[in-house]
Write a structure and sequence with these properties.
241 residues, alpha/beta, Carbamate kinase, 9-stranded mixed β-sheet, two-stranded antiparallel sheet, 9 helices, 39% helix, 19% strand, globular
Length: 241
């Protein structure tokens, strides 16, 4: 077992992480690179759980803006996360990583139902657990699902991945090149400054449960490995300074 700072982590993968450079769908080569990073971390002895988004397939807010019922749109988004979870499970298993998918909504033919104790047991046996279906409730984002699942399984840190953004900035660095990057923030500072770390519900959950968050660029070399070994990467959000 390698010397790592964290022994159990929750990795949040957005839909964009599955799409790569594409506007829609799953980019297999990008996903393969992510799977290799996850495999490396598992081989270091770290228990890894993953919450997946679905924005590369479906965006509920866009559907709602076009007149679709919000609840229906959100449930469709949950189904999109199941597709991503199955794609990730398949490519991880091709890499030789023992993987289980659990879903908050009923899709028993393709995934286990979410059961907290079973998920923890999988992690104890060295399996990667992928959580699909968000929280299973409309009006709740996959960011909230990530914070909730991390707390439930006793993860020591929530790893929030971004695409081509290496942390938290005072503004969108892709639009404002002079935006300031933060190396460290408290949960309360991130909430008060209304920074786009994650939605306020998810951030409040992390604040109340003193769950640290590391926000970093998924595309950077060895980024997940660096995060679990405690190397300075991205932005750390924690309870105190």
């Amino acid at each position: 077992m390698a010397d790592t700072k964290y022994k159990r982590v929750l990795l949040k993968l957005s839909g964009e992480a599955f799409g790569g450079e594409k506007d829609f769908g799953i980019d297999v080569s990008t996903l393969a690179k992510v799977a290799k990073q996850i495999k490396q971390v598992v081989e270091m002895g770290v228990a890894v759980a993953i919450v997946v988004g679905g924005g590369n397939i479906w965006r509920g807010e866009k559907a709602e803006a076009n007149g679709m019922d919000r609840v229906t749109a959100d449930y469709a988004g949950m189904l999109a996360t199941v597709i991503n979870a199955l794609a990730l499970q398949d490519i991880l298993e091709r890499e030789g990583v023992n993987t289980r998918t659990q879903s908050s909504i009923g899709v028993n033919q393709v995934a286990e139902p979410y059961i907290r104790r079973r998920a923890i047991r999988h992690l104890e046996k060295g399996r990667v657990v992928i959580f699909a279906g968000g929280t299973g409730n409309p009006y709740m984002t996959t960011d909230t699902a990530a914070a909730l699942r991390a707390i439930e399984i006793g993860a020591e840190v929530l790893l929030m991945t971004k695409n081509n953004v290496d942390g938290i900035y005072s503004a969108d660095p892709l639009k404002k090149p002079d935006a300031k990057k933060f190396d460290h923030l408290t949960h309360l500072e991130a909430l008060n400054m209304r920074l786009e770390v994650m939605d306020a519900t998810a951030l409040s959950l992390c604040l109340e449960n003193k769950l640290p968050i590391i926000v970093f660029d998924l595309q950077a070399p060895r980024s997940i490995e660096k995060a679990v070994t405690g190397e300075l990467i991205g932005t750390l959000v924690s309870s105190d300074r």
